[in-house]
Design goal:
By secondary structure, this protein is α+β, with helices and mostly antiparallel strands. Helix content is 24%, strand content 24%. The chain has a single domain, classed as Jelly Rolls (Sandwich), CATH 2.60.120.620.
Amino acid sequence: MHISSLVDMGRYPLDCPGSASFSTMISGVRDQLYEDGCAVLKGFVHEDGLKALVKEADRVAGKAHRSFSRTNAYFTKDDTSLPPSHPMRQFFDRSNGFIPADNFGPKSPLRKIYEWDCFMPFVQSALEEPEDRFFRYDDPLADVIINMVEEGDGFPWHYDTNNFTVTLAIQNAESGGEFEYVPMLRSPTDEHFADVASVLSGDRSRVSKLVLEPGDLQIFKGRYSLHKVNPVQGKRKRYVGIFSFVEREGMCGSVERTRQLYGRVLPRHIAREGLREDKLID
């Protein structure tokens, strides 16, 4: 399978860095990221590519780890030493499914995009990150996955465990599933708990809402921007592919969070627990 069978190469010439069309494209993406930590490339995957991705998602949907729980924005356990109003003690219903990365092998069209030799350099350039601080997520369960949301499911306010998340809308539900986020609410050195508490209590003054259409690619600074997915309605599943990148080679998910999202952990998660430079709560 050639990448052109998936990606609209005419509209998004990732394979032509240095060209005028590439420079125009990357400038627009950077402008979006600068404004609010989120950029959307409409129709990145064309119609025929979407058919292949939906077919793949339907085929592996039964492999999803479905979970129903109450969680806080940091995926930590309750800490009774903190006051009840602290955001780490605010828990909300979470129900959805994640199809782990080990279901997307070498022939997977989703992995084809993630491992395309032009894709990571493009994302790195869009984010203006140095080469020595930009790597694929070294997580055998979570480097490239599909988030599957069914009727009534949703994902409450949270942060991502990896620094940069790139998502691909594959299939929308019949209704609902809007993506809401608060750009850059925390920094690598400051949790800004008071600001998080304000959002969790209903302050929407800084909340942005985004409806992605199938084929749209989103580049998002999810480790620093609080975000959620609203519950969906209807029988059609919502599929979103997730490609993850980090700032340090060898990083993978924490044991606690991996177990919550995928229902299992591997030796690599245990061996590399805590391998990150920032001290943010996961």
